[in-house]
Write a structure and sequence with these properties.
Layout (H helix, E strand, L loop, with lengths): L2 E4 L2 E5 L5 H11 L10 H11 L11 E6 L5 E14 L2 E13 L8 H15 L4 E4 L12 E6 L3 E4 L13 E5 L5 H12 L4 E2 L4 H9 L10 E7 L2 E12 L4 E9 L5 H21 L8 E3 L17 E2 L3 E6 L3 H7 L1 H9 L8 E6 L4 E7 L2 E7 L23 E2 L5 H5 L5 H7 L4 E2 L2 H10 L12
Helix pairs in contact: 1-2, 4-5
Length: about 450
């Protein structure tokens, strides 16, 4: 037991013996919106974690609030440890997921109590940041900001591709096997280079993706290998369910360099529609009406060879960075590479960023970061703050309200977009603006967490 919470409740870490009870609890509490049925896909994912299938998660990485008298689960929170990259720099990440509380027990700070414990675990493990793929607003209460690109790609209706074109000569599509792990690792790494934030996958991770999940797990993807002239040329992956619009959700579509996207697109269409029909056939009344590429994001090579007419709204992953200065120090190589490739190459000077209650100070010497530290804006500065140029170095050169700097840090919004959305996002000088644009340009991310 971690602690007695009073009111007949205890907080404890999970054990392997909790697997079935946890799966039932998660499936019941985290139902799809307005659904009367338990969520079997989330229940199966919970089993993946608690039965030791995942490469890094262990049963004790979950907190449980339970009734002391009966042991019945009231609330839970899982922490999955991973390594992501930011601009090619590895970053340790903790991902809280599968968070839920019985409806009659909500509003009693049970999730907040568990976050306090899990954030402490995350700090002990050296995680530079935490991320959540979660519901609107809720996780802002715990220091998270919607800050990393999540989806926003197009969809295509079936009637827009009638008849489905023939597969180009020399191409075939087949299910991926564990023997494809090395090829998938190489192809995925090439694709990840397009993204600011990505999740590396080695051959062990691919073997988990291909054979480690329960068949019904929400995290399982059907992965197909695209072959040209008998050699692997790319892969495509899709989810197990149709979107509410009846579209099969395509989650990955990648090729090795030197391969025609146009031919690969034509080769992938027939098996994707066939997969959609198979998914629909398993649910009475369902029909595959098209393909959704929402999870491919707002920028992808596929969009250059097919003119999509419909696009779904984008969303974002929540991010929490408890120590911004420490995070920036960790990714300094990425910042210096960006600076060297920009119009501010070789910059010398100081940049102070204010977050109104805290801040960061960066010092550059000919394009190299020589100092990067937490910095406290001085509340004793005389005179009102209007964001105008100032000779007083105690005033930050740029100011970001609340957690909005995280949107800039992770390339989700440009500086100009932030200023348009938040009137109290203020940049004091043109030099500071140029430097911020060089260090933190709006950049797409393709985040496929290892869950």
């Amino acid at each position: 037991m971690i602690r007695d919470l009073g009111d007949g409740l205890v907080l404890r870490a999970s054990t392997a013996a909790d697997a079935e009870a946890m799966a039932a609890f998660v499936g019941d509490v985290l139902r799809a919106q307005d659904s009367d049925e338990p969520n079997r896909h989330l229940a199966a994912w919970t089993r993946d974690l608690h039965e030791g299938r995942h490469p890094s998660f262990r049963p004790g990485d979950c907190t449980i609030v339970a009734e002391a008298a009966t042991g019945a689960i009231v609330s839970c929170l899982h922490l999955v440890s991973q390594t992501w990259t930011y601009g090619g720099v590895p970053i340790a990440v903790g991902q809280p997921e599968l968070i839920g509380t019985l409806p009659e027990r909500r509003g009693r700070r049970l999730v907040r109590t568990q976050f306090d414990v899990v954030h402490a675990w995350s700090a002990e493990r050296g995680h530079r940041m935490q991320v959540i793929s979660g519901i609107p607003w809720f996780y802002r209460q715990f220091g998270y900001e919607l800050a990393i690109e999540r989806g926003g790609g197009p969809r295509v209706r079936r009637e827009a591709i009638v008849p489905v074109p023939a597969t180009p000569a020399g191409w075939r599509v087949r299910p991926a096997t564990v023997e494809d792990a090395a090829f998938l690792t190489e192809a995925y790494a090439t694709a990840s280079a397009r993204s600011l934030v990505s999740v590396p996958r080695d051959t062990a991770a691919w073997r988990y993706e291909l054979g480690g999940h329960h068949a019904d797990s929400a995290q399982r993807r059907v992965i197909l290998v695209l072959e040209r002239d008998g050699r692997p040329a790319g892969y495509v992956a899709h989810a197990l369910e149709l979107f509410s619009s009846g579209s099969l959700v395509v989650t990955q579509f990648e090729l090795v360099p030197g391969v025609s996207w146009r031919e690969a697109w034509l080769a992938a269409l027939p098996p994707l529609f066939a997969a959609g029909d198979a998914v629909a056939a398993a649910t009475p009344g369902e029909r595959c009406t098209g393909l959704s590429f929402w999870l491919l994001g707002r920028e992808h090579p596929l969009y250059r060879i097919f003119r999509f007419q419909e696009w779904d709204d984008h969303y974002a992953l929540y991010a929490r960075v408890p120590d911004v200065a420490a995070f920036l120090r960790a990714v300094t190589p990425a910042l210096e590479r960006r600076l060297a490739a920009s119009a501010c190459a070789g910059h010398t000077g100081t940049l102070t960023l204010g977050f109104y209650r805290s801040g960061v100070r960066l010092v550059f010497e000919r394009g190299t970061v020589t100092a990067l530290e937490a910095w406290q804006p001085d509340i004793g500065v005389r005179g009102l703050e209007f964001g105008r140029p100032s000779t007083d170095v105690r005033r930050p050169l740029a100011m970001f309200p609340d957690l909005t700097f995280l949107q800039l840090l992770f390339g989700f919004r440009s500086l100009l977009e932030l200023e348009a959305a938040f009137p109290d996002c203020v940049v004091r000088t043109s030099d500071a603006r140029a430097l911020l644009d060089a260090l933190f340009p709006r950049t797409p991310s393709d985040v496929w967490p290892l869950l």
